[in-house]
Each structure stands twice: as C-alpha cells, then as structure tokens.
Amino acid sequence: xxxxxxxxxxxxxxxxxxxxxxxxxxxxxxxxxxxxxxxxxxxxxxxxxxxxxxxxxxxxxxxxxxxxxxxxxxxxxxxxxxxxxxxxxxxxxxxxxxxxxxxxxxxxxxxxxxxxxxxxxxxxxxxxxxxxxxxxxxxxxxxxxxxxxxxxxxxxxxxxxxxxxxxxxxxxxxxxxxxxxxxxxxxxxxxxxxxxxxxxxxxxxxxxxxxxxxxxxxxxxxxxxxxxxxxxxxxxxxxxxxxxxxxxxxxxxxxxxxxxxxxxxxxxxxxxxxxxxxxxxxxxxxxxxxxxxxxxxxxxxxxxxxxxxxxxxxxxxxxxxxxxxxxxxxxxxxxxxxxxxxxxxxxxxxxxxxxxxxxxxxxxxxxxxxxxxxxxxxxxxxxxxxxxxxxxxxxxxxxxxxxxxxxxxxxxxxxxxxxxxx
Length: 422
Prior knowledge:
With 422 residues, the chain is an all-beta fold. The protein folds into two domains: 1-40 and 144-182, no CATH class; 43-139 and 183-419, 7 Propeller (Methylamine Dehydrogenase, Chain H). It has one helix at 42-46; strands at 30-40, 50-53, 60-66, 69-74, 78-83, 91-97, 104-107, 110-115, 118-123, 131-136, 157-168, 206-208, 214-217, 220-224, 228-233, 241-247, 252-258, 261-266, 269-274, 282-288, 296-298, 302-307, 319-324, 332-338, 345-348, 351-355, 361-365, 373-378, 385-389, 392-397, 400-405, 413-419. The protein has a six-stranded antiparallel sheet with strand order 2-6-5-4-3-12, with no helix packed on it. It is globular and about 70 Å long. 43% of the residues are buried. Mean pLDDT is 84; it is low at 1-24 and 173-202.
C-alpha cells in the first residue's frame, strides 16, 4: 500500500501595516492528490462474458489444465484457451472475455470463474464456442478500498482509479489506497501435482497450479477471499449454489487439496482442514510463520511452503519451508532453505519444482528433506507458477508460457514457448 498526499500553502502575505494586528483573513488553501473510483455498471458486468478468437498473452496469471487444454488467466480480462494436444506446438484457439477474472476451476466441461464480485459458470465442452450457463451474483466481497473518496456500489463495480486534484481549506489525510488499484481477487494460484485433480487420467484430467484460490472436490467448489472460504455445491453443475462460508483468517491466499485434507496458505501461516466431509471442512491445525506471501503444496508426509516478499507482504522472507505433517495435528518445521523470490511450486514423488521469480525455474531432489539437492536450474526468465504433469512441466510467468521435458530432472529441456506480446 502507498499513502500519498501533498499540501501547497497558498497563504497571502499581510501588508506591513497589518503586521501588528494580524491578517484580516486566513486564505491558506491545501491541494491534495486523490484517487477517484472508476466503475463498470452492473448491466455491463453481467453482459460481459464473451467468446472470441485466440489473443496474445499480455499479463498471464493463474493456470489450469483440463484434458488436452491449458487455461491461462489474462489478469482482470478473461481466460486464454490453449490446445495442448501437442505440447511442442501449443495452439492458442480462443479467448473468453470475463471482466475482472483472476481465478478458475473446471469440472466435467464447466468452467467456474470469478468476475469481480460474481461467480460465473461457462460451458466449455467446445472451447471455441464457450458460453455462460450460470451465475451467482454479488457473492464475493465488493472491493471497498478506502481511497479517501466516496464509493457508490449502486453505480457498479470498481474497475480502476483516476488521479484527481482537490483543494481544501483544512489540512486532512484523505486515506489509503493500493498502489496497483483495486484487488480483483489476488495475485496468487493452486497446487501443481497430480493429487490436485479430480482424476489424473484422461479424459477427465483437471488440475490447477499452486497459486490458485479455487479448487473442486467431490462436487463442491471452494473459493477464497481475503478471510473466508466460500463453498458452493455443484449438485446442479450449471447452477452453482452457495453452501457454506468458513472464516479462516485474515490474508488467506491459496488453497491446495490433497486426499482428504485442504491446505490453505496465508500471509501469516498454513491452515490444515480435514475435508473427509467435503460439505463441512474442519480446521485441524495451523502452522505460523513470518508474514510473507505464501502458497503451499503437500504429499502424504510433508508440506512445502514458499515464502516471499511482494506487493502486499513486503515484510516477509524469501525462503522454502519444509514442514513435517505426519502428525497433522502438530505440524513441525523440518528445515528452511533460502530462495530468491519464490512463487508457485509443485512436488511429484521426491522431485520438487520451484518458480523462484527472477531466478527462473529450479528443480530439486527432495528425497532428504534436511538436504535437498539442486538438479536443474533454468534461469533467464521470470516464473510465477508450475504444473508438473508426467514428463511435462508447464510454467507460466510474466514472460509467457513455457513447457519443459522433465524426464531427466538433471537436464530439463524447453520444448515450447508462447511469449507475451505488448
């Protein structure tokens, strides 16, 4: 967050003859820079889902694999549909415009995505002809950021901020706002290994990355806002219905399902929920850490947490924590490893993949948790999240989409790239 205000004293000098008696009138004026909200009307928002031809990647975010397709979020704009039948030659076939979109999940041909405050359901069996089939209106928190300027939800949803200059007779602090404008949902995504999928076998492959805030388990959709886990029942897949809301804690960021557990990463720690009853997840334990942005993945015995500094968590650390969860009621730190600026990660068996921001992609042999060993390092590009899938590693970041052959973990090989276009 950035706190910004400035003053300009415009007081008039009093004449020499008035110095002893003082000024007749105080004409001091103060000038401030503020941000005024810009709106998208409710009608425009709810008519905003459109299907079109493939578009260039410009600001890619979250990623999801569905059968032979890759779904890549274009931050705040919608979702790219990539035909990945041949990973060495991915085909950008369609783009679904979804205003305010950041997160997604897919099950049985239905894409569930956020659109600012709404949840939309989109039929995806033919990605070139995707269409909206359901919507839950105003289910996610309205972005009521305190910019110091009045906010009027009746006008629609806030989509941006305009810098304006205002004057006042009195000095005043007009408040706070986020440097990057409104929070659409988050900068983060979900779990990159096979355990995150409803099924890991064709034709029902469906899994997300480690930075996700959406996931689907046994007919329930789980979504996160800053403090709550919102659960929807998908008993009617075309019409997701709110089921329950669970308060988890402030600044929760990512959700990762593994077997009958949910692992939720927050800026202050990791929460573990027993999800053996998907309609009623129960908190089992919490592992606290220094304030940092925090995705988490897990296997049977260990959880892997990357901590990083970032836009809204710049007081944190840049490190990997490995946590023993064999006693899920008492998670214990095994060891911490320093990193550059780690974001998404994935684990398959004992191979650990880390998207280390500016440092690129790192692949570790994590057989010995107390002494993980670097196997491959692919530098030279910025990484955000990864989905390991068999012998394939799918990596997304500010520079575009990369795919790697990982059959030899000591020598991963790039097989394709879709770069961003400005």
